[in-house]
Each structure stands twice: as structure tokens, then as C-alpha cells.
């Protein structure tokens, strides 16, 4: 396991370094050679490119305000890096086209023109990232009305508040966590369901900021339930689950609970459980095998893969997250290619699926192309005779 992690981290580090070197090399060509501006640009670029890795490593062992600053700077840098890379690739594509067609005027290649391109490009990236940050801290409440053609005891309806991919940690701290709790409680739900990636890998900043006290303020008559996501397993699922359960969240780990003798809530372990623990999670049909399927079945499954299996197992409503719908445009095209539904609602057979882009985010505190959200699902059932 450690050997695989070293290989994976080495590949990521090589790619990360190569992308930063490519951006720096092309950007520096727009600045005067031998000038102080070019020298300072190089040092600032180098510092920013190492802040994220340094911050994430140090936050576990030496938590401090300085380390938090490094993490925040590095997180923003990831967004700058993506759009800087896309911009440089676009410019190079234009240059290649010019090489074969000669479409660009000679003035395009002067030092003055290159400096203006650098200024305009940097300004555009700053505006894009700043707008994405404002969007990321402005979650919306999505309201959905769905019907299940089953009776649920004496219940005619159920108000479900759902959130996924909160990613509690250095970036999603007390202010954002409190906003989440207030947003959910204001909906006055019957039950609260958290569909994985509740914490962002390392538990240390969650504990240090006492974010669990905010979670304890979540309230619903039928309780608060959660499942593991891949980030719980990356950071250590057992410690994360213990912390969350100690702060008012009932974690469903390949387990099912019958509520009010009216409906079931089932929670799957994350798909990555096998990779991190070498223990396979239950198949959905195994998990639901002994349930009374005349009652409504709500399934929490963090990663929305193999939807047909949930349909075949008799699930009425599956709630998922994980995709972030790419989080940063144009990565949403990647998630759309990977998942049958990258964000939003889908119905297959008699099964309702909803995939949330999440409340928080991984890496950059930036969202472009979609908004973070809390979801209220007003579920209605067939009336008992």
C-alpha cells in the first residue's frame, strides 16, 4: 500500500512540476530578459508553486496560522495553474497555426505586444479565479419534489436535507461549516443525509478548529446520517468515522436502518474502501437482500457508478456526490464523460438518482461552471389504503 502511494505521489509530483515549468517558461518569455521584473517573477512563481504541497504536508504535523496561509495560497494557486496552463496552450496553438499559415501580423511578436499579452492574460485569470471564489462561498438551496410509488407506513411525505462533499478542514472552516448548518436547519427537514467526503482527508484541522461542535447543531426528528467518501479513506476512515459519530452523525457503513417503521436508509462504504483497506464493500444487492422492499428504500452511495445495480436491487432514491461536476470549467466535460450523471437528476426505471456537485470542494476554494448547494428533497409516498 505504501509502495503504491509513493508511486502515485511521485507521478502526481512529476506532472505538477512539469505543468508549472511549462507555464513559467512560456510566461517568462513575455518579460524583458535580465530585468528585475523577470527575476522577481521567477522567485514568486517558485514560491507559489510549492505552497500547496508544503501547506498540506505541514498542516498535519505543525498546524499554525502560517501553515494555514500556505494552504490557502496554494489552494488558490491550483486554480491559477489550471487557467494559466489553458491560456498558454491556447497561445501555443495559435502560434502553431501561424507557423503554417502566417495569419498573425509581425507586431504580434514584438516585446511590447508580449508584455501586454502577459498583463491581459494575468488579469483575466485573476478575474476568473476571484469570480469563482465568490461563487464558491455562495451556496444555493436546490428544492426537488419526487414521488415514490410505495406506501411508507403512516407517512405521506418526507423532507430530506442532503449535502455532499463538504470537505471540512482548513479551507472549509468554522464560518462555512456554520453556514452549512444554518442552511440545513432552516429547511426544517425530517431527516438529514450527508453523502460522503464530509471531511477533507486530514482530520487535524477539523479537530483544531472544533468543527464537530458545529455539526452537533444539525437537527432533524429522524436524525442525521452520513457515509464515507474517498477522502475519509485517504485521511483514515476509522478516525474520521469515530470523530463524526462523536459529534452527532450516525455513519452507515454497509449498513441499513429502518426508520419509524416506514422507510429504510442504507449507506454504502465508499468505492475506494478496497483500495485503502483491501476489504471489499458489499454489493448493493447484498446490502439490501433481506429488506422489506414494499417500503421505500433510500440509498447513500458517494460515487455514482453502476447505477443499473441500484435499479436492479430495488432502490427508490439514490443520493450521491463525489463528482463536484468538475468544480472548475472545463473539467465538467471530463466528469460528464466518466459518469452517467455528473450533476443533477436522473430517473432509471422506478429509481430516482440525484448527484450533487457538493457544498465544499477539493483544492481551490473556487467554483466555475456550477454552484455549491444544499438540497431539499420533498419525497411523497403512495397513500395507505
Task: Write a brief structural summary.
By secondary structure, the protein is α/β, with parallel strands linked by helices.
Give your account of this protein's structure.
- This protein has 385 residues and is of the alpha/beta class.
- It has 2 domains: 134 residues, no CATH class; 241 residues, Purple Acid Phosphatase, chain A, domain 2 (4-Layer Sandwich).
- Helices cover 45% and strands 16% of the residues.
- It is built from 13 helices and 12 strands.
- The strands form 2 sheets. Strands 1-12-2-3-4-5 form a 6-stranded mixed β-sheet. The chain has a 6-stranded mixed β-sheet with strand order 6-7-8-9-11-10.
- The longest helix has 37 residues.
- The termini are far apart.
- The relative contact order is 0.14.
Write the layout of secondary structure elements.
Elements: H1 2-28, H2 36-61, H3 65-101, H4 111-136, E1 140-148, E2 157-163, H5 174-186, E3 191-194, H6 204-208, H7 212-215, E4 224-226, H8 230-235, H9 237-245, E5 250-251, E6 255-259, E7 263-267, H10 273-277, H11 284-287, E8 297-300, H12 307-312, E9 317-320, H13 332-338, E10 344-348, E11 351-355, E12 373-381
Parallel strand pairs: 1-12, 2-3, 3-4, 4-5, 7-8, 8-9, 9-11
Antiparallel strand pairs: 2-12, 6-7, 10-11
Helix pairs in contact: 1-2, 1-3, 2-3, 3-4
Amino acid at each position: 500500500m505504501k509502495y503504491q502511494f509513493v508511486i502515485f505521489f511521485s507521478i502526481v509530483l512529476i506532472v505538477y512540476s512539469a505543468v508549472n515549468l511549462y507555464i513559467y517558461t512560456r510566461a517568462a518569455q513575455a518579460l524583458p530578459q535580465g530585468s528585475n521584473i523577470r527575476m522577481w517573477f521567477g522567485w514568486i512563481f517558485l514560491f507559489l508553486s510549492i505552497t500547496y504541497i508544503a501547506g498540506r504536508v505541514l498542516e498535519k504535523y505543525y498546524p499554525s496560522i502560517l501553515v494555514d496561509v500556505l494552504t490557502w495560497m496554494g489552494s488558490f494557486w491550483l486554480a491559477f495553474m489550471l487557467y494559466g496552463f489553458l491560456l498558454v496552450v491556447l497561445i501555443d496553438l495559435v502560434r502553431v497555426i501561424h507557423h503554417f499559415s502566417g495569419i498573425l501580423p509581425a507586431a504580434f511578436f514584438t516585446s511590447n505586444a508580449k508584455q501586454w499579452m502577459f498583463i491581459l492574460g494575468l488579469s483575466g485569470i485573476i478575474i476568473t479565479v476571484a469570480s469563482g471564489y465568490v461563487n464558491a462561498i455562495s451556496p444555493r438551496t436546490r428544492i426537488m419534489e419526487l414521488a415514490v410509488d410505495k406506501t411508507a407506513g403512516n407517512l405521506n411525505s418526507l423532507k430530506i436535507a442532503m449535502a455532499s462533499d463538504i470537505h471540512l478542514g482548513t479551507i472549509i472552516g468554522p464560518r462555512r461549516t456554520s453556514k452549512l448548518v444554518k442552511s440545513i436547519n432552516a429547511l426544517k427537514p425530517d431527516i438529514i443525509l450527508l453523502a460522503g467526503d464530509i471531511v477533507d482527508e486530514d482530520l487535524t484541522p477539523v479537530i483544531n478548529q472544533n468543527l464537530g461542535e458545529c455539526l452537533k447543531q444539525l437537527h432533524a426528528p429522524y436524525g442525521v446520517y452520513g457515509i464515507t467518501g474517498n477522502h475519509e479513506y485517504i485521511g483514515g476512515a476509522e478516525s474520521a468515522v469515530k470523530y463524526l459519530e462523536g459529534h452527532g452523525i450516525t455513519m452507515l457503513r454497509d449498513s441499513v436502518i429502518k426508520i419509524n417503521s416506514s422507510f429504510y436508509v442504507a449507506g454504502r462504504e465508499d468505492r475506494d474502501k478496497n483500495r485503502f483497506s483491501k476489504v471489499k464493500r458489499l454489493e448493493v444487492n447484498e446490502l439490501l437482500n433481506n429488506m422489506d422492499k414494499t417500503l421505500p428504500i433510500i440509498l447513500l452511495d458517494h460515487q455514482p457508478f453502476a447505477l443499473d445495480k441500484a435499479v436492479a436491487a430495488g432502490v427508490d432514491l439514490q443520493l450521491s456526490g463525489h463528482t463536484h461536476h468538475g468544480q472548475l470549467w472545463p473539467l465538467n466535460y471530463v466528469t460528464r464523460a466518466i459518469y452517467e450523471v455528473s450533476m443533477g437528476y436522473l430517473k432509471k426505471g422506478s429509481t430516482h438518482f440525484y448527484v450533487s456537485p457538493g457544498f465544499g470542494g477539493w483544492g481551490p476554494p473556487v467554483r466555475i461552471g456550477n454552484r455549491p448547494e444544499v438540497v431539499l428533497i420533498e419525497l411523497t409516498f403512495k397513500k395507505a389504503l
